[in-house]
Model the fold of this input.
Amino acid sequence: MGLDRSPNGQTLLAITLAHRDNAINSYSYCEFDAMSTLDHQALHLLYSENNSWLKGWLRARLGNAADASDLAHDTFLRVMTARSQLPIREPRSYLSAIARSLLIDKVRRRAIEKAYLQALALRPEPVEVSPEVRLSIIEMLMAVDSLLDELGPKTRAIFLAVQLEGLTYGAAAERFGVSVTTVKNHLIKAMTRCLLAVEG
Done:
């Protein structure tokens, strides 16, 4: 059995899709649970005192009022689903930290979507992709990208070299100056991380 499959025979694609679905389900449960105990008055105060400031903070970084408004909205939604105690001692530091994380995700998503469209454009024949399928593919790629970020730089690089570039273990070992055994260990680490993500 090759390392492109998990010990139970799942392909990386299947693992990735399962991880994405688990993440969505976990988010929905967290939102419901948090909403049942939320201090609505404290949240309203947090919003009324900081929404305009947060939009300005985001607009200065995005250069776009519409995107800033959308991201500010997403930031307060994240506060609603968090388990932090309200009121928050340093609200603007807290909000800017959440917004910064969402901003990084937004930039990453745009980069992934751009790379995906470029890859489609390089195909010899035009490929018709429905909006639904395109969204599903982008979400899957985001999930893969998030998983790879958790692996560490060397494991990530070796994993991509073998899985995407098609390097043999020997070629990967030569490129990274390690043994074939080390290459295999990094790949096992990557696949184990994928399995742990699926199992929660």
